[in-house]
Description:
Layout: E1 3-5, H1 13-25, E2 30-35, H2 42-53, E3 57-63, H3 70-79, E4 85-89, H4 95-107, E5 111-115, H5 119-127, E6 136-140, H6 153-166, E7 173-178, H7 187-198, E8 204-208, H8 243-262, E9 279-282, H9 287-298, E10 303-307, H10 315-325, E11 329-333, H11 339-348, E12 351-354, H12 361-366, H13 368-387, E13 395-400, E14 412-415, E15 418-421, H14 424-429, H15 441-461, E16 465-470, E17 472-474, H16 486-496, E18 500-503, E19 509-514, H17 515-527, H18 529-532, E20 535-539, E21 546-548, H19 549-560, E22 566-569, E23 578-579, H20 584-590, H21 598-612
Parallel strand pairs: 1-2, 1-8, 2-3, 3-4, 4-5, 5-6, 6-7, 7-8, 9-10, 9-12, 10-11, 12-13, 13-16, 16-20, 17-19, 18-22, 19-23
Antiparallel strand pairs: 14-15, 19-21
Helix pairs in contact: 5-6, 7-8, 9-10, 9-17, 11-13, 13-15, 16-19, 16-21, 19-21
Amino acid sequence: MPGFTVTFRPDDRDRAEQAVATLKRLGIRRLRVPVGDDGSADGWYDWLLPRLATEFDLLPALALGESGALDGIGKLIAAVPALEWIEIAAAPGQSPDIAEAAAATRRAGRKVVLSGLDPAALELLAQRGGLGAIDAVGIGAFPGTGDMSWRGWEAVVEEYAETMAATGRVHPLWITGTGFSTWRHDERGQIRAFLAAAEAPADRVYWSSLQDLTPDEASARGFHADERDYALGVLRADGSPKLLGRLLERGGIAAVRSVDRLGRPGSPRPASGSTGKPVVITGGAGFIGTNLADRLVREGHRVLVYDNLSRPGVEQNIDWLKSTHGNAVTFELADIRDPHVLREAVAQAGKMFHFAAQVAVTTSLVDPVTDFEINARGTVNLLEAMRAQAEPPPLVFTSTNKVYGKLADLELRLDGEHYAPADPEIRARGIDESRPLDFYSPYGASKGSADQYVLDYSRTYDLPTAVFRMSCIYGPHQFGTEDQGWVAHFLIRALDGEPITLYGDGCQVRDILFVEDLVDAFLAAQEHMPAIRGQAFNIGGGPANATSLVELLERIGSASGRRPDISFGPWRPGDQLYYVSDTAKFNAATGWRPRVGIAEGIARLSGWLTENRIAGAETPVLRRAAS
């Protein structure tokens, strides 16, 4: 397991303690900390370094400056008497300072690792007798970020080893500086660079870094001199984990290797009779994509699942799909915001389903910029990739009922434990597509923008596209949370005997649609694409499958025998008191209608959760298919 390099902001003890706690959760044992030698932060290091040495195998990396390093070395040893190693981070042309610092470190009984020099500079230093007090050599390289023509760690380490052998000295070789920037949202690249470094033929490896820089911080090369410097962490600047950070916390390097293997070729078990181009599903590791992919493969199609695994637990869906269907399912670990990888996926597609999205209103309220980048810009990336194809694949895009806004003008009355429209026609049929768009919340705006782009690219560029404005979907493979996937969330909480918080009075009404019926609708849309292209359709369970939140909890309580305790919170911005889909337009175009009622659907989801879930676990633990 690599160690980590972390640069600490002077005099910010709270942030340092947060970093210590995070590193321990990630299972990090070795810590490299760059320190200066100018004396400006002596008091800070007098506190920081002993604190870190109590938790980690500490390697201070002393940067040589104009004032020399003797004082810095003495201060390091005084601050942490138990230090075994000190790194001297040098630069070509500092031969006298290097030799002086190394000799002083050796006299103090400590070992020296020298970093910052390429093989040619090391050879020159050896000729001047500067390697006599060096115990190890540190190598720095950032493949894919700072080193664009990368030969691989084996070749790089071998070059250093040959240089050292030519000097007559054999020293341990460490990788003291490496990392991967996710500035292009390439978290797959970060995972693979991390594993490549961990498996490099080096005695030690230190990975940089723990957390992205905030926009108001300066990197080592200056304030926004290179945007790549701002995205080197395994955590984002707000402290939320990237995929690599989440996997390390969940299961260490073994979990990282497990996810990496999902995106590589496995045992050949192609779909029976599969022909033609694959069906590409963006966001296909989610519960809707998993159910659709499963059906498609069973019907003889090949499927490419394109997903960044940002939702915790969905990697289990990919594992399940690949263990069940083998190489009939290909997994591309990539982000919808990366247009280069996306373009390659679209070029392979025979048909497309676009589900990749930021899916929670609550998250959009906290971070509307990221919500826009994923939902709106990501969709335009996809449409542009389609437009570049000689024969664009037909696309079904999942929008949301939130494009209709809060529906504040809809006259409602409280009827027992649910709201009902005063208009008998709406009460009987639901909300149809003639309803004016009224985006509410950043989520509604970003999904609504994507909705309109998909329709407009059909009108303007003649792309074969259709839009589903979906209500609430539920079913197997759903990892429900309070913010998204609320039907499964309610069931999970009930099965665990945990309380549930309802926002508002709980009488708000939704129509819920079992995912099996939704998959039928997807296939019907592709089958009838010539007739429905350029159109939007409201898709949900309709009035026959409408329920209020409290009514659904009563059903769950009756079905499971465990009615959870309920508390109530404030209304959320943009929450609709009533939304039920009128699906007559899609029914007329394709003949589709829902077949699974609420009682049957809840029973089937409850059974799936019971079979595939360990009580108290955050996400289901899927049973792998038999080999």
